[in-house]
Amino acid sequence: GESCTDDEEEEAFEEDEAIVDQNLRLCLVGRCLTDSIVHFPSLRNTMADLWHPIRGICISDLGDRRILFQFFHEVDIQRVLVGTPWFFNNHLLLLHRIQPGENPSEVPLVFTEFWIQVHDLLPGLVSETMARQFGDFLGKFLEYDLSDRLSNSYSFMRIRVKLNVTCPLKRRKKVMVGSDRIFYARFQYEKLSLFCFICGKLGHGESFCPIRTRLAPENIVFGRDLSIRAVVRKRTVLPSRWLREVGGDDRNWSGSHGDSRP
């Protein structure tokens, strides 16, 4: 009869490393920054709808709260990376692009990219050198948005920063000009979702802050508030002059002037 050998002692299946790396070349691994249970089927549908990649997407559950997003074209994966941060149910989605040789189940998922506004600057301080200094103070400097320079906003700048989500969000930075002038630059985070007013970290609200278990309620200090959330400037949308009210009164329609036949 056939001899039974221990399955672990048999010769291992060999898989070409290049093939594995090629399959993961267009992959992101991610997790939601929350202690709550995340409903995977909902996340899968929501993110696929939100991103609607041209070539489609495969989204699979790796277990241990990790999700693998497989894209099929560089254009699609780039659009998602440029658009970070992304959220599911107000939970920040931490994403990492798999590099050759990396194991999606083991890479640390603690970084995210944010656009951060630096406010209350002295006009002469808006420069790339300063942007880099602020960026590296906040996390890791990535880029500096020059488009706002055109709108005469010389007292603030926008920088793209890679943040470590295990660190508290920074509120301000003391800046010295020469030996006698001191001012404080204020930071505001764009697309900022859930963060804690007590410890300043992303991913939980103040009611679930671990500090609550260590301090008496009267000793708890709310060190942050919503002022570190950047307010998105809403564009005012003027109604098109070609639009008419449905079943409504057309007297206000600009197209009716000059061609008012009885």
Automatic annotation (TrEMBL):
Domain Zinc knuckle CX2CX4HX4C: 164-210
InterPro entries attached to this UniProt entry: At4g02000-like, DUF4283, Zn_knuckle_CX2CX4HX4C
Pfam families assigned: DUF4283, zf-CCHC_4
Domain spans labelled DUF4283: 22-106
UniProt protein name: CCHC-type domain-containing protein
Organism taxonomic ancestry: Eukaryota, Viridiplantae, Streptophyta, Embryophyta, Tracheophyta
